[in-house]
Design brief:
The protein is α+β, with helices and mostly antiparallel strands. It has a single domain, classed as Roll (Nuclear Transport Factor 2, Chain: A), CATH 3.10.450. Helices cover about 40% and strands about 20% of the residues. The chain contains 7 helices and 7 strands, in the order H-E-H-H-E-E-H-H-H-H-E-E-E-E. It has a 5-stranded antiparallel sheet, with helices on one face. It has a two-stranded antiparallel sheet with strand order 2-3. Strand 5 and strand 6 form a beta hairpin. Helix 5 packs across helix 6. The radius of gyration is 19 Å and the shape is globular. The termini are far apart.
């Protein structure tokens, strides 16, 4: 019995280390510039409802939403479908709120990304690179407007270019 407890105590730190959350490191100057540029281009494309501009920055394998992988062709179809959750979450606050609003807390109501970006104040962009895989990054865009939940976009490098792999709502009303 004591031997079992000692083994568990000895194994505990090792298993805790394996299950530890992923650490992030500061991005290189070049990666920071590239990620900031792509985030700004996505913001502009969303504000202009430029579907092709958005698609240029989407991972060719598609997008992940929680545990679901949505292939690029489906993402493309959803962006062109004005009734899809993806389209509504990006461009149409009124319809997005009507369809999905009950799944969001009252402090952070369901608003489209276009509304978020068009009304954002004191906007900041935070960039983190994965310590385990330097080709993965998270970009967080914050606004000081009450009710604006930060937008988090996850990127990875594809052929040397940063592409969005997660962070948009695809396939359902929420991701997370």
């Amino acid at each position: 019995m004591i031997a079992s407890v000692l083994i568990l105590l000895w194994l505990g730190p090792a298993s805790a280390e394996l299950n530890a959350p992923e650490k992030n490191v500061p991005p290189s100057q070049l990666d920071q510039q590239d990620l900031r540029r792509v985030a700004e281009k996505l913001k502009t494309a969303i504000l202009k409802e430029d579907i092709d501009g958005i698609l240029r920055h989407i991972d060719p394998d598609g997008l992940r939403c929680t545990d679901t992988k949505v292939p690029y062709q489906q993402v493309r179809r959803d962006l062109h479908n004005k009734n899809s959750d993806l389209y509504l979450s990006l461009f149409d606050t009124a319809r997005f709120f009507k369809r999905c609003g009950r799944g969001y807390p009252s402090d952070y109501p369901a608003i489209s990304d276009r509304e978020f970006f068009s009304r954002a104040e004191n906007e900041t962009i935070e960039i983190e690179i994965s310590e385990r895989n330097k080709d993965r990054a998270k970009v967080t865009i914050r606004s000081s407007v009450k009710g604006h939940y930060p937008r988090e976009l996850y990127f990875h490098k594809v052929a040397g270019k940063w592409k969005v792999s997660q962070g948009f709502i695809v396939g359902s009303c929420t991701c997370g």
